[in-house]
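Need residues for this backbone.
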């Protein structure tokens, strides 16, 4: 009888003792988003589009994309091609039979996001060099504030002593829906620049942007100047910083600023050509695409006298139709980084198909 009375309280309290641990474990389990890999036409790769809602307290988003093979064919891939180095995807190879599922674990660092209120990403699955599928996703942030750019490259116009620029700010759903009066402006600071440089800023919460003006004294001649732009907020993102540089206008020049892609007769890719001119003929800058279609590849060819040939190649035919929410195709962002200076160029682009669609 005594043994029976002693055992009942133990059984009663046991779940309570383990309950906090169970709750903690559930919080660390990434959400699972379900979708399907479908093929819109026999000649097209399979595609999946997902939407993820996140209320994570840090700037790293992690979720699982559970995708069912909605085709009647076996999908095989042995390589992943990501649209951003800020994204990690696993597994990188799998064989998915019709009706079966593959689960991708996706981890993305939001501090490397391009300028958008609804960050997202994409990745391609390939079998060798053959594109088998495209998986893309949007992320709806619930509680967040951060920079919407990875760097700020400014150019000094001839005869000017100031430059105005806008820094996109990524807002979470809670901040975006709040009244302007209830939001506290961030503290903005310029770091690494000599004395005499003055930064003025104004936060525009409705436009999700920080309007800035950077001024410098007449004695500033030792270009480029490189430092950091920092903001301190009362939100979960806390302290944020982004590299900023100021260089002379004639450091680098790209021509043309509007690319025209033409169909290659060799392998069916889309090709456009441009040229980079360096004011210092001894410069050998690194040229990279920082924002553009996922299948875009850029190769450079030195021609001498500070001139480089830029060869742009689009491997995915669908990429030429990519457009933003306003129906306009987003420009290709190209960053040129020399030994002391960096510049970013926004290049519009078109194809012969544009004229046919009018």
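Answer:
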């Amino acid at each position: 009888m005594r043994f029976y009375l002693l055992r009942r309280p133990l059984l009663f309290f046991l779940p309570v003792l383990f309950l906090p641990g169970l709750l903690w474990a559930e919080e660390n389990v990434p959400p699972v988003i379900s979708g399907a890999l479908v093929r819109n036409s026999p000649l097209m790769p399979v595609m999946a589009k997902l939407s993820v809602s996140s209320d994570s307290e840090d700037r790293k988003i992690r979720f699982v994309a559970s995708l069912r093979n909605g085709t009647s064919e076996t999908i095989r891939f042995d390589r992943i091609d990501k649209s951003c180095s800020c994204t990690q995807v696993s597994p990188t190879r799998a064989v998915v039979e019709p009706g079966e599922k593959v689960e991708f674990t996706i981890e993305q660092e939001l501090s490397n996001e391009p300028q958008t209120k609804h960050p997202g990403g994409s990745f391609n699955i390939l079998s060798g060099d053959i594109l088998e599928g495209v998986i893309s996703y949007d992320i709806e942030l619930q509680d967040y504030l951060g920079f919407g750019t990875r760097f700020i490259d400014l150019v000094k116009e001839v005869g000017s002593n100031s430059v105005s620029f806008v820094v996109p700010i990524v807002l979470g759903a809670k901040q975006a829906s709040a009244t302007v009066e209830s939001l506290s402006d961030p503290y903005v600071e310029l770091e690494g620049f000599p004395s005499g440089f003055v930064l003025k800023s104004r936060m525009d919460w409705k436009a999700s942007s920080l309007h800035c003006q950077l001024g410098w004294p007449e004695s500033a001649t030792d270009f480029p100047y490189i430092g950091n732009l920092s903001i301190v907020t009362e939100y979960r993102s806390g302290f944020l910083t982004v590299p900023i540089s100021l260089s002379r206008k004639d450091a680098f020049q790209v021509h043309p600023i509007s690319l025209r892609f033409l169909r290659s007769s060799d392998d069916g890719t889309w090709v456009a050509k441009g040229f980079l001119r360096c004011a210092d003929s001894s410069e050998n800058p690194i040229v990279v695409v920082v924002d553009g279609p996922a299948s875009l590849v850029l190769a450079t060819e030195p021609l001498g006298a500070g001139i480089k040939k830029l060869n742009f190649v689009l491997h995915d035919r669908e990429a030429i139709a990519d457009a933003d929410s306003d129906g306009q195709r987003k420009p290709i962002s190209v960053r040129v980084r020399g030994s002391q200076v960096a510049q970013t160029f926004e290049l519009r682009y078109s194809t012969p198909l544009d004229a046919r669609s009018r």
